[in-house]
Amino acid sequence: MDGVKRVVEKRTPISVSEAVKKVIKIRLGQETELVHLHGAYRRTLAEDLIAKHSVPPFDRSPYDGFAIRSEDSSEASRDHPKTFRVIETIGAGSVCSQHVQPGEAVRIMTGAMLPIECDAIVMLELADAFSKDEIDYMTIKRAFPSGHNISYKGEDVGEGTVLIQKGTVINPGTSALLATFGYEYVKVAKKPTIGVYATGSELLDLGDSLEPGKIRNSNTHMLLAQIERAGAIPRYLGSLPDEFDRCYTKIKETAEQVDMLITTGGVSVGDFDLLPEVYAKLEADVLFNKIAMRPGSVTTVAVWQDTLLFGLSGNPSACYVGFEVFVRPVIGMSLFQEKPHLKKVKATLIESFPKANPFTRFVPSHVTYSNDRIQVSPSGFNKSSAVSSLAKTEAFMMLPGGTRGYESGDVVDVLLLETAEGSEWPWD
Amino acid sequence: MDGVKRVVEKRTPISVSEAVKKVIKIRLGQETELVHLHGAYRRTLAEDLIAKHSVPPFDRSPYDGFAIRSEDSSEASRDHPKTFRVIETIGAGSVCSQHVQPGEAVRIMTGAMLPIECDAIVMLELADAFSKDEIDYMTIKRAFPSGHNISYKGEDVGEGTVLIQKGTVINPGTSALLATFGYEYVKVAKKPTIGVYATGSELLDLGDSLEPGKIRNSNTHMLLAQIERAGAIPRYLGSLPDEFDRCYTKIKETAEQVDMLITTGGVSVGDFDLLPEVYAKLEADVLFNKIAMRPGSVTTVAVWQDTLLFGLSGNPSACYVGFEVFVRPVIGMSLFQEKPHLKKVKATLIESFPKANPFTRFVPSHVTYSNDRIQVSPSGFNKSSAVSSLAKTEAFMMLPGGTRGYESGDVVDVLLLETAEGSEWPWD
């Protein structure tokens, strides 16, 4: 225990929402970069997506048919059919090469541009086409009004319309829109880089064999995936032993190179919990170190030279929750997202949860559906499955403090982990 | 129209479920590869995840406290406190270096291995620690039974337990489990490669300026993102003009290099729809070319030399739906997924949808939540927003054929696009 001082302190817990508000008040930089559209899926738009031209970009035919001057059809009827001379065929992408004269028609394909003199489209099925002396004709038996079957320029979207707002995550439909308007390179939010250190002398690396008294570091690998899911770049830093000088030096060194730094473990008040001392020596501004929540009550967040230092618990569930509740919204905000918090919905509990909740409790949960109702059950309620429960977790129940237990059938708050769109603050 | 033959045929529509069944009957290869755990997020496990050792891997302390031999505490009481000599402090990762004798205790940290002679843990708060003549002691005022506060080896998971099944998509919790058991490299399903050609002489590439009569290819870029979301590798191939020989040669050449080939457009029965002729000349086995669904009724799937050829519609919504309904499950199956189809749930319609549905209809939709109910509304019902509706689409309503319209308040089937877990067949 050389170099380890016991930190004797009485910590005062604050509420979850107070804690989250303190964290998101620290505004990190919002940087942008240009990426090719083919690398833009799941990135966040850093500028509004604007219709750079009208859609459709010209008057066009929505069907295969014949383009005519409507006035030429005005007298056509079953008894007095009207025959047109078909002077040209235009496919999509082609433009009529001639001026259409009275009594003439143009065979036109779906999506092709309407000849300038024409103002109606006759669907293929309503015309009788024939050839005579190598000239093409078609006959109709009714009149067609001006504008019939025409998709007019700009009828879907006018030039300059804001179609998708800055801060939206790019999905396949967004990609289609970006392509439509020629966004070959897209201005997106630059992903922040987040370093992850595990602390604890008991931790082995991935490739190491087990040794008596030691376990493999699993929290770091979980966090790397959580960081990726949240849209940031994880930086793997390995683990630090319970040695103060080593921890202090490494944390200081790395904090200068990343946008945020996460450590797991060592934030409690035990003999080997070094993080409080590290923050003290760094003279970091500790926003809080005790939250009225379970798990994760010792989650600590500090600011040092514009870098956020997240001290998450070494307990896997607490670490998972701590990331999603406190780190994820900061990432989302630096990505310009308007709704950076986990999506909150309600669901019917389908299993009793008899534990009393003196503090806000986050319970790893599994979501199912029954008719149009969302149902939820704890994913790791049986101790035997504790280790694999997080892999089966799609949501957290958020049970308010000061409640007894919950019965099957009760409606509870649920935070979803995998939705494209999150929630705005506040959850409460 | 050189080289273009009009394909005159009467197509017989089959039902959506018949069509999907025909496609998934074609078994593509299921290949595996090893990837480092840090690159494994969102990949699919190609082998069961097995507990390679017990969890915990040894008897350990869940708290900071003192390890004792319980029998030594049997006579302790408020009136007759029992004092132990504290012979050593062990942190997590360390092992007690001495044999613990009667009347001795060991200061032990959370997660540390229990000394072999000890069988109970006294929490820190229940002991009075003090030093005298440079020797450490602690006193307790009650008895502690054998097993008190001990996490026993294997109590969470026994060695050899299958924790996660092959075919599961790796999420952050799975990453933690893989790390726990030392899976430095993970056997995952190899992603199939899917080529995408757009067809149509009207199509401009991303970087091109608009020209009269032409529009930019947007379907391809949408499909690249859909392919990525479904877990496969998209290959961008650009667009093909409406020229038969060029189309035929390119499609044949590319089909030999990819696992699946998607084309968009050209599958209908118009003069410029070349795909039916391409399939005929390839002597590909056309599984179907007409489905009783809207949009996407002309979606065609053919098999040529073990390569699936998907002929999707050129209409953006039809193209989107065609991919999700027919291509996605094939990708999922080649990734060993047990539930490769879009997740089907029910939702309450919150907007009337008065259109009659002679055929199964897929409506791009937006999902919202009210209390514990899922609600759905069309995302592009107003024509003016047609072009951006797919970007706001999180789901498709699936309305059965032979129904009139639907009223607000009706409960309808909904296919979710963004869930981690899909549905097993059948949807119907």
TrEMBL record, chains A, B:
It catalyses: adenylyl-molybdopterin + molybdate = Mo-molybdopterin + AMP + H(+). The keyword Metal-binding applies. It is an enzyme of class 2 (transferase). Pfam families: MoCF_biosynth, MoeA_C, MoeA_N. Its EC number is 2.10.1.1. SUPFAM superfamilies: MoeA C-terminal domain-like (SSF63867), MoeA N-terminal region -like (SSF63882), Molybdenum cofactor biosynthesis proteins (SSF53218). It comes from the Bacteria. Keywords: Magnesium, Metal-binding, Molybdenum, Molybdenum cofactor biosynthesis, Transferase. Pathway: Cofactor biosynthesis; molybdopterin biosynthesis. Its cofactor is Mg(2+). One of its GO terms (molecular function) is molybdopterin molybdotransferase activity. Belongs to the MoeA family. Catalyzes the insertion of molybdate into adenylated molybdopterin with the concomitant release of AMP. This is Molybdopterin molybdenumtransferase.
